[in-house]
Amino acid sequence: MLNKVLIVGAGLIGGSFALALKAAGAAAKVTGLGRSPASMARALELGIIDEVAATPADAMRGADLVLIAAPVGQTGAILASLLPYLEAGTIITDAGSTKGDVVAAARAALGERVAQFVPGHPIAGRETNGPDAAIVDLYRGKKTVLTPLPENPPAAVERVAAAWQACGAIVHRLSAQEHDTVFASVSHLPHLLAYALVDDVAHKPHSALLFQYAASGFRDFTRIAGSSPEMWRDISLANQTALLAELDDYLAQLTRMRTMLIERDGASLEAVYANARRARCRWIEAIETAEAPAPAASEE
């Protein structure tokens, strides 16, 4: 049981974390702190948080665990604002989608107190934002990656891991560099591509006609382009090196497929499509297996 949890940014990610902890009986009190009074008021109205802190000092007083659920570009400034009120027993974590920049920001802001910061990233989300988007089961059966620092005491890492497990998440651990390399490929590049496609269609002179006939395939491929532009701007710039490497690989693949089209090389196109289909089916099967609820214990 955590006596007090502070959520900095009670939107989709922070709000869902708060709801899940409360539903699990893992937090006695959840306090909210944010830059938008309207969002904080809405989170309070929805029961996501129990109180809104007026100042960082009030927010941090007696906090066992702090979750920073804000765009990664704000991490350093948020940590700096909390540092004067950071109590010895408080552990801070985050939910940022990049980790190298977050670790650097934490070291710069916290200095010798960085041992009290355990970086994290829940691998779950929706394309909607704000307190109204928060749901109690967002993390159930989903992965949360922790990228602990060498300075972190095992008990600090365990406190963060236990909180995510109380939310129903499956906790994994990677280094910050491993994390950013992996997610540049499977998360950051797909978001960039979705935004690029919708922006391209929107700028065409006959965009209204195109959108009129866009159906489920276009909707599914571009769903993530409905996510927060501010958040994904920060993520793209924060993971620039790894994202550029993945983008270059993808551009090379597109160039190869463009040549196949020019040469009417149907066999090669089909081979790419078939390999992609097999890989996706294997991935879906693995995901469904990992997320399947544990069988109920039999009664004897």
Structural class: alpha/beta
State the order of secondary-structure elements, H for helix, E for strand. EHEHEHEHEHEEEHEHHHHHH
What is the CATH homologous superfamily assignment of the largest domain? NAD(P)-binding Rossmann-like Domain
Helix content: 40-55%
Number of helices: 12
Q: Which term fits the overall shape?
A: globular
Total beta strands: 9
Distance between the termini: 31 Å
Overall mean pLDDT:
94
Per DSSP, what share of the residues sits in E-state strands of 2 or more residues?
5-15%
What's the level 1 CATH class of the largest domain? Alpha Beta
Describe the structure.
- The chain has 300 residues and is of the alpha/beta class.
- The protein folds into 2 domains: 2-174, 3-Layer(aba) Sandwich (Rossmann fold), CATH 3.40.50.720; 178-291, 6-phosphogluconate dehydrogenase C-terminal fold, CATH 1.10.3660.
- The protein is 53% helix and 12% strand.
- The chain has 12 helices and 9 strands.
- The chain has helices at 12-23, 37-45, 56-60, 75-82, 100-110, 154-166, 176-202, 207-213, 216-222, 229-238, 240-262, 266-291, and strands spanning 2-8, 27-33, 51-52, 65-68, 91-94, 117-118, 120-122, 143-146, 170-173.
- It has a 6-stranded parallel β-sheet.
- The longest helix has 27 residues, at 176-202.
- The protein is globular and about 65 Å long.
